[in-house]
């Protein structure tokens, strides 16, 4: 009798232990997310905090509460740093880069993923091989090519270089997404008389919108924050982008820290607001199961 009751109690204890472990898993996950968020947010909030202080407060007592809130740092940073022009240039370059990448990479991914032909895999490897090529290795050839094309100090040069650098990643993502689309849909469209371009536009593209959104957000942010290539290709202040233009507050001997920090806050706002607006669609794309590696 005791053996029977003991046997019946053991599964109960095991189930309770399993339930305890299952209940602890969300807590651990949430704790990790909170810590990761703090690692990202605390430096950003500290920059905002320092941006409303004066130079003695920033350099002398950065952790102390400011005796006066210097909101004029923002207006002065905007006017003296020509941030409006830098933001416009960056927006043009990032927007045009995303448009070129989406067009070229979606067409290439459509051909590679939806059609079988000799050299199909070789073409795919050609595109994704760019992922293994650091931009610093080809910086000199890029500079010489852009100079020969007489595109130095132009936004067009940045768009072409950014787009060529982002196509490899985009093709990799879109090919794996498009391969998950049933071929029966394509065959049905062919039977209805649809050609390749019509299939691409009316059948495939609507189904890969989550992946296109992921590519667009990633490539836009990449183009927005790129520093090395604009520094290499742009010397005209009127065509500088934000990452390079913001350095105008850094002098040879002195740095206008209050203006630099206020400028960093200003130029960060468009990307933060933009990402918050598309965050739901971005998460939906990641969770839809479309991006299959």
TrEMBL record:
<keyword id="KW-0812">Transmembrane</keyword>
<dbReference type="InterPro" id="IPR000515">
    <property type="entry name" value="MetI-like"/>
</dbReference>
<dbReference type="Pfam" id="PF00528">
    <property type="entry name" value="BPD_transp_1"/>
</dbReference>
<protein>
    <submittedName>
        <fullName>Carbohydrate ABC transporter permease</fullName>
    </submittedName>
</protein>
<comment type="similarity">
    <text>Belongs to the binding-protein-dependent transport system permease family.</text>
</comment>
<feature type="transmembrane region" description="Helical">
    <location>
        <begin position="256"/>
        <end position="278"/>
    </location>
</feature>
<dbReference type="InterPro" id="IPR035906">
    <property type="entry name" value="MetI-like_sf"/>
</dbReference>
<feature type="transmembrane region" description="Helical">
    <location>
        <begin position="158"/>
        <end position="178"/>
    </location>
</feature>
<keyword id="KW-1003">Cell membrane</keyword>
<keyword id="KW-0813">Transport</keyword>
<feature type="transmembrane region" description="Helical">
    <location>
        <begin position="199"/>
        <end position="221"/>
    </location>
</feature>
<feature type="compositionally biased region" description="Basic residues">
    <location>
        <begin position="10"/>
        <end position="19"/>
    </location>
</feature>
<feature type="transmembrane region" description="Helical">
    <location>
        <begin position="122"/>
        <end position="146"/>
    </location>
</feature>
<feature type="transmembrane region" description="Helical">
    <location>
        <begin position="27"/>
        <end position="52"/>
    </location>
</feature>
<keyword id="KW-0472">Membrane</keyword>
<feature type="transmembrane region" description="Helical">
    <location>
        <begin position="86"/>
        <end position="110"/>
    </location>
</feature>
<feature type="region of interest" description="Disordered">
    <location>
        <begin position="1"/>
        <end position="21"/>
    </location>
</feature>
<dbReference type="GO" id="GO:0055085">
    <property type="term" value="P:transmembrane transport"/>
</dbReference>
<feature type="domain" description="ABC transmembrane type-1">
    <location>
        <begin position="87"/>
        <end position="278"/>
    </location>
</feature>
<dbReference type="GO" id="GO:0005886">
    <property type="term" value="C:plasma membrane"/>
</dbReference>
<keyword id="KW-1133">Transmembrane helix</keyword>
């Amino acid at each position: 009798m005791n053996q029977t009751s003991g046997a019946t109690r053991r599964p109960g204890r095991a189930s309770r232990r399993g339930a305890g472990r299952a209940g602890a898993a969300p807590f651990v996950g949430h704790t990790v997310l909170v810590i990761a968020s703090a690692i990202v947010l605390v430096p950003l909030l500290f920059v905002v905090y320092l941006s409303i202080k004066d130079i003695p407060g920033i350099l002398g007592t950065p952790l102390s509460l400011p005796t006066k809130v210097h909101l004029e740092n923002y207006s002065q940073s905007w006017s003296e740093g020509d941030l409006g022009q830098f933001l416009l240039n960056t927006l043009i370059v990032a927007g045009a880069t995303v448009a070129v990448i989406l067009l070229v990479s979606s067409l290439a991914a459509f051909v590679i993923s939806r059609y079988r032909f000799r050299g199909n895999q070789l073409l795919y490897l050609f595109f994704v091989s760019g992922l293994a090529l650091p931009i610093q290795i080809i910086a000199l050839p890029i500079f010489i090519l852009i100079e020969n094309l007489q595109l130095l100090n132009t936004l067009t040069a940045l768009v072409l270089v950014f787009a060529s650098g982002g196509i490899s990643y985009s093709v990799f993502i879109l090919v794996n997404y498009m391969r998950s689309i049933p071929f029966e849909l394509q065959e049905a469209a062919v039977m209805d008389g649809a050609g390749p371009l019509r299939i691409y536009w009316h059948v495939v593209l609507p189904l890969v919108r989550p992946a296109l959104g992921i590519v667009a957000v990633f490539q836009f942010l990449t183009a927005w924050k790129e520093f090395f290539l604009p520094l290499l290709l742009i010397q005209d202040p009127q065509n500088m982008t934000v990452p390079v233009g913001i350095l105008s507050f850094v002098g040879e001997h002195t740095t206008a820290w209050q203006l630099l920090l206020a400028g960093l806050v200003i130029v960060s706002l468009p990307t933060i607001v933009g990402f918050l607006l598309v965050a739901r669609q971005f998460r939906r794309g990641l969770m839809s199961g479309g991006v299959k590696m």
